[in-house]
Structures are given as structure tokens and as C-alpha cells.
Amino acid sequence: xxxxxxxxxxxxxxxxxxxxxxxxxxxxxxxxxxxxxxxxxxxxxxxxxxxxxxxxxxxxxxxxxxxxxxxxxxxxxxxxxxxxxxxxxxxxxxxxxxxxxxxxxxxxxxxxxxxxxxxxxxxxxxxxxxxxxxxxxxxxxxxxxxxxxxxxxxxxxxxxxxxxxxxxxxxxxxxxxxxxxxxxxxxxxxxxxxxxxxxxxxxxxxxxxxxxxxxxxxxxxxxxxxxxxxxxxxxxxxxxxxxxxxxxxxxxxxxxxxxxxxxxxx
Amino acid sequence: xxxxxxxxxxxxxxxxxxxxxxxxxxxxxxxxxxxxxxxxxxxxxxxxxxxxxxxxxxxxxxxxxxxxxxxxxxxxxxxxxxxxxxxxxxxxxxxxxxxxxxxxxxxxxxxxxxxxxxxxxxxxxxxxxxxxxxxxxxxxxxxxxxxxxxxxxxxxxxxxxxxxxxxxxxxxxxxxxxxxxxxxxxxxxxxxxxxxxxxxxxxxxxxxxxxxxxxxxxxxxxxxxxxxxxxxxxxxxxxxxxxxxxxxxxxxxxxxxxxxxxxxxxxxxxxxxxxxxxxxx
Lengths: 266, 281
Known about the structure:
The structure holds two protein chains of two kinds. By secondary structure, chain A is an alpha/beta fold. Chain A has helices at residues 47-54, 72-77, 96-106, 111-124, 140-152, 170-187, 198-204, 238-256; strands spanning 4-13, 21-31, 36-40, 62-67, 81-84, 158-162, 190-195, 207-212, 217-223.
């Protein structure tokens, strides 16, 4: 059974009005359990919308969408989603460990178990020593690691990440990529990763879903056979560079197909 | 060990000195203004019923303190201050409590809070003090309830408006997070909306603390029991005893500042995380 399965999914905002926007058109996508998949494309291609449909933050206008054999709403009620946004979205009135405990509190875990689980998650993202700090005392990269720890705290089946490292500087981002791969390796989660960084998508995922805007469509799904474990040397591998070039061409075509400019501006 | 103690003592004095340097301009301005006032009155020979010297006001104030402390004596000033403070505090408690409560209830239903907000904002710009004579008729001119009513209405609207804002102006992702946890509305209220509203509520309470004293004193100008600050000021002023009138103004200011500081202190205790409090303590 596929972890995520989309068949002919469409999403239209403001249907039957002047502001009608076809955000997604005829999306077909199957994601295996434990797969790391990236959604990449220029802004307006609907990659975040697709992630929100999977997470039941939005509902499709038509088509079939299932997560572990359930409708997205049922999967959400079964608490199968861990979400990470571009902003760390930590509650500023809670200490770091209490932020990680938040989902566990909401889900009614007993206090002792909550603490232990949250501490274990913080240790995993190497922030165990910062448990009692407040979010504002942490750097952007550390805040995002707390956010990942929080998303994993209740052991959800699927991790949905919406440009989680988009606001970080290049060095921090590359380190976070390595850490995320390590976490993925340890936990075996299914990860849907939205990004606009080609190198990030190629470095991280098993498959790269290339999308194009107006209307949002999947133009190509690129398999990624770069060997695991991946590390700093992966980015020096000629195969890595070939793949980056390949995805870049695909993105250029995707944009060019609707662009009026002959060079297909990005 | 002795070395560590010596170092700790040194840090303490260094901290004290830093604080003193930090606050010295403020203190200098306060002292300067009072001295200037004193000299202007002296040099231009201003009549005491127009503007008494600070030293005369202070002398009158100390006289009242002596009266207040002496057994068997009464200080009308201190009795008045107490009465006015209770009116202000009672009104503050009822008005702010009511404002927060109504905000909590209406924000539960977005439609209701959206429908009531325009009225609250309109009511907030009405000069409520104009109702003082009516409240005197309703509750009785010497009944403290007439002043409390005015104060409660004055502080109710800003508190309610700010609380509704704090409960509803949320980051989209913060809400989506709760949604992804399949959180119950009660959890969203307790763990997200209310903590998010706290800074808004406290900024309203700080404004309300000052407003409540102003409201009480001004409401008393329209008539009230003998032993209240507003009545005290009007009576002493019409009797040309301006040093007395000014001591009452001084008391009202001291209570206003004190009230504000108490609210500020409560805010710091309850919200140690907040941006405005960072890098202190």
C-alpha cells in the first residue's frame, strides 16, 4: 500500500468567480512508505497547495487522495502528520522542551512520558542542553531543529515540510540537510519536502517531483539514484551535478512552456 | 572563597553603579523641574493661589502625613485618597474583568466578535465621562457605585477590544499546527489563543490602570462624598487653599503611578518570555 496516493486531483480556488484560480490540475502521484520525496517548482506552481491537500489543511476540489489508505481528514484525526513550516512557528511563551511537548499535551500523553519523549527528541536534534531556553534565545537554525523535534515527537507516519530551510543561510541549510537525512535514516518516516532549491531537492530525496505553474501540474518525476548515506562529498559527485543540471533544465522547460519570453525566464 | 565573595560584592556595586548611571538623567530632570518651579514662583512673586511653591505643597503633604499617623487625628486627604482608590480599583476590576470575559465569550464565535467589534470601537471613542451626572442619578451622588460605574465603562471597551485582537490575531501556521494535531477547540483556546492574547491584555490593563484613576477623580468633580479626591480638590480650590488642592493632585498622581507599576510588575511575573522584557533582569 502506498503511503500517499493521488489520482486525478484538482484544486480550484474561488470557483465560479472572477478570481478563479486553478491551483492544481490532474495531479497523479504515488509515494511509497518511507520514501523521501521533494516537490519543486517556481512560485505559484501549487507545491505548497499539494502539501496542504495531503495534510488536510485544504481539501481537493475533485480527485482521489489517500494517505495510508485513509482520506486525509481521517489521517489527520489519526494524528499521522508532523508539520514543519518555513518559519519555525514555536510558541514564544513556551520553553524549548514545552514546545516539543505541545503535540503530546494536546494528544493527552501522561506528563512523565511527555517529558521523556520530548527530551529524547531534543537529544536527537542535538539540542538536549537547550531544553529550558526560550525560543528567542536560539538561532534560526536551532529553532528549526526544535520545530522538527516537535513534529516527530508523537511519531507521526508522515512528515510534511514546507520550505523548512528556506529562511536559513547556505551553510546552516547544508548542515540541516545532513541532519535531516540522518533523522530520516533513523526514523524511516515518509517525508514530503517542498522546496525551491534544486540542490537541496537533489541532495535529499529519492524522487523529485518537478511542477509548473498556471495551472499547477506535475511535469516530470525524476528518480534519484545517488547512493546513501549521503554526506558532504555527495555534492562533489559528478552524478549529483548531472542530476542538478537535469532538474534545472526540466524547471526551465516547465516555466518556458507558459512563458512569453523565448529564453524561459525563471 | 573570600575571593569569590569579594568578586560577587564587586559585581553588585558595579551593577548598582550602572543602574544609577542609567537612571541619573531621569532623576536630574525631575529634580531640575521642581527646583525651576520653586525659583520661578520666588522670582516672579507668583501668588500662592495661582501656583504654590513645591516646598509649600510638600510641607502641607507632610502635615497630612503627621495627621494621618497621629492617634485620634484624622487626615481628610488620606481618607479621600483611600475612597477614590477603591472607586478606581473597583471600577478597574469590574470593567477589565468584564471586558476580558466578554472578549473570551464572543471570540468563541467569530461572527459574534466581528459583529460586536465596530460597536465596541465606536463606544470606545465616546467621552464616557459625560455620563457621570446620569450615573449620579442612577446610583446616588454619594454612592461610590456611581463612580465605579463610570470607571468600569471607561476601561471596559479598550480591554475588550484588545483582548479580542489578541485572541483572534494569530499566525496562520500556529493555527495550522493545532489543526494538524487534531486539537480540540478548548486546547486551541487554552494553549494558543489565551497565551497569544496576554501581551494585548496587559497593554490594555496598563492603559486602564491610569484611566481608572482619571475616571474616578473626574467623576467626583460632578459631585460625590466629602472624603474623595475629586471633591477635595474642587472644595479646597474654591476655598483658595491651593496647597491643599495640590497635595490632593499629588496623591492622585502617586496612586496612578503606583497602580501602573503594580500592573507592570504582574505583567513581568506572568510573561517572562515577552519581547519587551528581554535582556532585563
